[in-house]
């Protein structure tokens, strides 16, 4: 382990985490973009428009669609904002874990409905969110400001 100087105090610098950190930031940005757009659409678009594009929003209560959209928006914000500002950065792996849960719940829902296409999105997005949760929690956590 090497020592680097940050500010006025010494902190341990992790060897070999730069490529992982870059991959995690890329995954966070990709997930935030995808979940941010999906969440915004689910919270703002009329249900009939959503149902025309995705079918399932017309088969569940509108409140559930809006709730899922709100959770996706919060997850998208949580992937980026705490990490960038370094204010409560522990929220970033929690946001990623929440998105893993959303995708884990979406898989059986879509399987039950006989929908294959959403699974092509749910499984990879869930895996990518799990990668971010693991990486930011265990391998390349972001330290708090100060």
Fill in the keyword field for this structure.
2 strands, elongated, two-stranded antiparallel ribbon, mainly alpha, 7% strand, single chain
Strand-helix topology:
Elements: E1 2-6, E2 9-13, H1 18-44, H2 47-54, H3 62-85, H4 91-113, H5 117-139
Antiparallel strand pairs: 1-2
Helix pairs in contact: 1-3, 1-5, 3-4, 4-5
Question: Can I get a quick summary?
Answer:
The chain is mainly alpha-helical and 146 residues long. The chain has helices at 18-44, 47-54, 62-85, 91-113, 117-139, and strands spanning 2-6, 9-13. The chain has a two-stranded antiparallel sheet.
How is this structure best described in words?
There is one protein chain. The protein is mainly alpha-helical and about 150 residues long. Mean pLDDT is about 90; it is low at about 1-15. Helix 1 crosses helix 5 (about 115-140), helix 3 runs antiparallel to helix 4 (about 90-115) and helix 4 (about 90-115) runs antiparallel to helix 5. It has helices at about 20-45, 45-55, 60-85, 90-115, 115-140; strands at about 1-5, 10-15. It is built from 5 helices and 2 strands. A two-stranded antiparallel sheet has the order 1-2. It has one domain. Strand 1 (about 1-5) and strand 2 form a beta hairpin.
